[in-house]
Design a protein that fits this description.
The complex is a heterodimer. Chain A is an alpha+beta fold. Chain A is built from 14 helices and 33 strands. Chain A has an 8-stranded antiparallel beta sheet with strand order 11-10-16-7-8-15-12-13. In chain A, strands 2-3-1-4-5-6 form a 6-stranded mixed beta sheet, sandwiched between helices. In chain A, strands 21, 22, 23, 24, 25 and 26 form a 6-stranded antiparallel beta sheet that branches. Chain A is globular, with a radius of gyration of 27 Å. The two termini of chain B are 36 Å apart. A 9-stranded mixed beta sheet of chain B has the order 7-8-6-5-4-3-2-1-9, sandwiched between helices. In chain B, strands 10-11-12 form a 3-stranded antiparallel beta sheet, with no helix packed on it. Chain B contains 18 helices and 15 strands. The chains are: A alpha+beta, B alpha/beta. The interface between A and B is large, with 26 and 48 residues.
């Protein structure tokens, strides 16, 4: 039985996590050179393109250390984005140690700090790793200083490496086996295994990724899922090499996969504990937390005929994405669609891109919204994330909205502009403190809704790319919320309605009106585009009627060509969405709604 | 409708594809003609007419020589063409003959010859009375030649002399266009055609626009010039009867063009000419070469055709009708093609009337001046219903 080390790599986006993982896999002979693609763990196109990990992957590596002993190293990959912190948590729970990766030129970023705190919460042993030491801009001394000042870790324990060139990888592997503790756990105790991830296999059903805490799991065993309270028969267990390698059993301390006849991801909860049905553990493993969507948007197919395809695509996506929620929705302007819930804006982006890229769907997404808690005059409390379902204001006693604690790290010189941005976004209790020389962390409490609307882009702009941002959900706080309707010639366009803070209503409405005025083609009559709260108009633009389109000549009896042009025009009209008497091309919706995110 | 009888007989069109130079805005089938080419064209046109011998029963009561430049053919050539047409095709004794001419081709001998051939309406391609504008448009004549050609035509005794003008040149001011109209009105023409400059893809102007070297007049300016034209000419007794056509009295209106607007059959001869027999439309080979080859093989040089469904015809009737000040008779559409557009478009018609684009006069929909200016998209607002014949086949 080889010695085991379970560890993960935590890092800020783009600090080289995937490249380091690749190098470790390569060094341990996990992949033939022939099969090697860069960033092998990031198997999805979108992850590859953006250089971020969304869905975690796990791999078992075989390593013979300097002391001559064979080790089984379980590299539990973690998603690198704040939207997926619940997944990060589960991954961390399966580890004894973590490599905290820091870019030698960028230094410590907000996410580095957030991830460190998470890792410490789970009592992990931390090995700081300074990566990209080959870069001309690398400043190892400064990063060491930041590790000391910002993170409170011993800077001289940091391993220096260049994952790109492979420099320092051997030192790192030795540090993993020498400095990280082996897993504890009692092989004789009743089985308890944490499900930290799952993937759907069309042939095998759901494949569960598990960390066995105590006991052992083996084929033929009847197991009990403690949170969902379901029983299954184990069909196969094994190690997560690049391919699944079946084993006789997985025992305490090991990480691997379990196939147990689970049909869909919806049938299980990630974070659940598997135990033996006949000899159950006394209590489930701690740390289970439901992944709750916090951002909501309605997704409509551009072509109404694609609705069935969209439904099928969402069903398929949900097989591998337990956090995605969706239910039928309909708009009089855009037809049938789905109201979807996401963990954050990136999650929304990822789902949208998968639907478009893998399923070839042309989509329209309504403005993202958070979920508001509305207390009615009657004392009844309702949760509303869809403007269409917002209660009549006269029936509302008060409304609360989710707040986040945001942490922004940046060079000192940007503190002014960032404070201004945070103030604009209704930030309260803003404090900042100096980290290492010239670096500041700003902490503020602000409404999540304010972050949905191009906050990250604006932050990157005002800090010229040097600002980094992370957040965690805090609580619900009272909000002066209004529903803004967009009216086209007096008719509300339901897909454009939104819930916003009263102070933001006018600028947001004007932004929408102007966008529509730019993109709705002029028609034979004047079109008023208005933003309104209830009956009160708060913004207005006008699209003037066009006055001249008739062609001068209809010559020589060539009427066919003219009719065909007209038929094309009529065909184009059919694809337009009609609101009252006004025809609105889909491009107008796209143009208006696109500015919401990005 | 008053003109219904007048337009009921078919019309005959002859396309003469030659021009001494090609105007940079022109997208018609034209090419420079040398004497040999013109001679062969006349022979081929006569051969084409012969291919239609016996195919049309109803006599033609309009004959329109267009192009291109019919005036670029010698009077003897025109005479041979007319003689052949009368020989092979049924031409009514009352047939009204119209002909296009460029001012530079007009002299006393020419107008006398054309008049002798029986030309009733002489349509002169004046385009502008401004020398710079004429150069911009690639025209080969001067304002003086234009005036002279009009005088010569009047002296020759054509019952109708019409002037073609072009407006909305890039950068053209309202004042400038007023001056052009005034110059035309000084010549007291019974008929005027005022065309907005339309820049087509594939023409020299089209390429210049694509390159960014030429900017078409903006819509607002074009709309203003359109309405200015209609207002000024109405004031001076030349009321519009179509988007681009103005006549001092109903008898000066183009009888031939009205056939296109009212779905009266017409036969077109020559390259690119279109024909219509009441339910089918076909068109000739666009280029001279293929047209000649087909005729030489003894075939009708038809390049394509289409059968028109009642809904096609009704849609055409709408967009063509809305180009005319008479408008569209929904009762006639119902009677001819069985489509009850009034029933299917009640709300649309009410909305268009409320927006001041149409007014209702009995079963007629008559465009207002504002409606005439957007006639292209008026028709697009209408739903085309299926003939009730289909519905009546359903079990009661």
């Amino acid at each position: 039985m080889p010695d085991i080390r379970n560890f993960c790599i935590i890092a800020h986006i783009d600090h080289g996590k995937s490249t380091l993982a690749d190098r470790l896999i390569q060094r341990c002979g996990g992949v033939d050179k022939r099969d090697f693609r860069d960033q092998i763990l990031d198997s999805m196109d979108i992850e590859r393109e953006r250089g971020i990990t969304i869905k975690s992957n796990t791999i078992t590596l075989s390593y013979t250390a300097g002391d001559g002993r064979d080790y089984e190293l379980n590299l539990i990959d973690t998603p690198g984005h704040v939207d997926f912190s619940h997944e990060v948590r589960r991954s961390l729970m399966s580890c004894e140690g973590a490599l905290l990766l820091i870019d030698a030129s960028q230094g410590v970023e907000a996410q580095t700090v957030a991830n460190l705190y998470l890792a410490l919460e789970y009592d992990l042993e931390i090995i700081p790793v300074i990566n990209k030491i080959d870069l001309p801009a690398a400043d190892v001394e400064r990063v060491r200083e930041e590790i000391d000042a910002d993170l409170g870790l011993d800077p001289f324990e940091a391993v220096l490496c260049s994952a790109k060139l492979g420099t320092g990888v051997d030192d790192l592997l030795e540090a993993i086996v020498r400095r990280l503790p082996p897993p504890g756990g009692d092989p004789q105790a009743p089985l308890s295994a944490l499900i930290f991830d799952a993937e759907y296999d069309p042939y095998r059903g759901v494949v569960l990724m598990c960390r066995v805490q105590d006991g052992a799991v083996e084929p033929g065993q009847r197991v009990h899922f403690m949170h969902t309270d379901k029983e299954h028969l184990v069909e196969e267990v094994g190690l997560l090499r690049l391919k699944h390698v079946p084993r006789e059993r997985l025992t305490a301390g090991e990480v691997g996969y379990v196939i147990a006849g689970v049909k869909t991801i919806q049938d299980i909860d990630i974070g659940d504990t598997i135990t033996d049905a006949a000899r159950p553990a006394a209590a489930p493993l701690p740390g289970y937390k439901e992944a709750k969507p916090v951002v909501f948007s309605s997704i409509y197919p551009m072509a109404t005929d694609d609705y069935e395809d969209l439904a099928a695509a969402l069903d398929k996506l949900a097989l591998n994405d337990a956090a995605l929620t969706y239910e039928k929705d309909s708009s009089s302007a855009l037809g049938f669609g789905f109201r979807c819930g996401f963990l954050g804006l990136l999650h929304l982006d990822v789902v949208q891109e998968r639907l478009q890229r893998h399923f070839g769907l042309d989509l329209l997404l309504s403005a993202p919204s958070v979920r508001y808690r509305v207390t009615l005059e009657t004392g009844e409390v309702v949760e509303v994330d869809n403007p269409a379902l917002y209660p009549d204001p006269s029936a509302i006693d008060h409304v609360e909205e989710p707040y986040i604690k945001a942490s922004v790290m940046m060079p000192e010189r940007y503190i002014g502009v960032v404070m201004e941005l945070v103030r604009e976004r209704r930030g309260v209790d803003t404090t900042f403190h100096y980290l290492a020389v010239g670096r500041v962390e700003l902490v503020s409490q602000l409404p999540l809704a304010e972050v949905l609307f191009d906050f990250y882009d604006r932050l990157k702009t005002v800090t010229q790319g040097y600002g980094s941002f992370d957040y965690e959900l805090l609580d619900q706080r009272p909000s002066d919320l209004v529903k803004v309707d967009i009216l086209v010639n007096g008719e509300p366009v339901d897909a454009l309605a939104q819930l916003v803070h009263r102070d933001k209503a006018r600028p947001r409405a004007l932004h929408y009106c102007e966008r529509l005025a730019e993109t709705i083609p002029r028609q034979q009559f004047k079109i008023a585009v208005q933003g309104a709260i209830g009956g009160q108009i708060i913004a207005r633009t006008t699209i003037h009627a066009y006055r001249k389109d008739v062609t001068a000549k209809c010559y020589g009896g060539d009427i066919t060509r003219k009719r065909k042009l007209l038929e094309k025009q009529k065909e184009g009209k059919k694809r337009m969405k009609v609101v009252g008497t006004v025809e609105i091309p889909q491009e107008a919706f796209v143009a208006v709604l696109k500015t919401e995110k990005s | 409708m008053a003109q219904a009888g007048a337009v009921a007989r078919p019309g005959l069109y002859v396309h003469v594809p030659f021009c001494s130079a090609i105007c940079p805005y022109c997208d018609f089938s034209v090419l420079p003609g040398d004497p040999a080419r013109k001679g062969r064209f006349v022979a081929d046109l006569i051969a084409e007419a012969r291919l239609w011998e016996g195919a049309w029963d109803e006599p033609f009561d309009t004959l329109y020589l267009g192009g291109g430049t019919p005036s670029s053919l010698a009077p003897e050539q025109l005479a041979r063409i007319l003689e052949a047409l009368r020989h092979y095709l049924p031409i009514a004794a009352s047939c009204r003959l119209s002909m296009e001419a460029n001012p530079e081709d007009v002299d006393a001998a020419a107008v006398a010859a054309w008049r002798a051939l029986g030309v009733h309406t002489l349509s002169l391609g004046v385009q502008s009375f401004d020398a710079a504008a004429l150069r911009f448009l690639g025209r080969r004549h001067t304002p003086a030649q234009s005036r002279r050609s009009v005088e010569l035509a009047r002296e020759a005794g054509f019952p109708v002399v019409s002037l073609d003008l072009i407006y909305a040149l890039p950068g053209q001011s309202q004042e400038d266009w007023r001056r052009q109209l005034a110059a035309a009105l000084e010549l007291a023409p019974p008929h005027l055609s005022c065309y907005e400059l339309t820049i087509h893809q594939g023409t020299p102007f089209g390429f210049r626009v694509a390159r960014g070297a030429l900017s078409p007049a903006p819509e607002g300016a074009r709309a203003a010039l359109f309405h200015l034209t209609h207002d000024v000419l109405a004031d001076r007794g030349l009321a519009a009867y179509e988007v681009s056509s103005f006549a001092a009295a109903p008898e000066f209106r183009s009888r031939h063009n009205a056939k296109y607007w009212r779905h009266v059959p017409y036969l077109g001869l020559g390259p690119s000419a279109h024909s219509f027999d009441g339910s089918r439309r076909w068109w000739n080979e666009r280029k001279l070469g293929p047209w000649q080859q087909r005729v030489a093989r003894g075939e009708r040089p038809v390049a394509g055709s289409e059968s028109l469904h009642p809904t096609d015809l009704a849609l055409e009737a709408l967009f063509l009708g809305f180009r005319t000040t008479d408008g569209v008779d929904l009762a006639a559409i119902r009677q001819r093609w069985g489509l009850d557009l009034a029933a299917a478009n009640g709300d649309t018609i009410a909305a268009l009337a409320a927006d001041g684009l149409l007014r209702r006069a009995g079963t007629w929909l008559v465009p207002t001046a504002a409606g005439l200016a957007v006639a292209d998209s008026l028709a697009a607002r209408f739903e085309m219903t299926s003939p009730p014949g289909r519905a009546s086949m359903m079990p009661a």
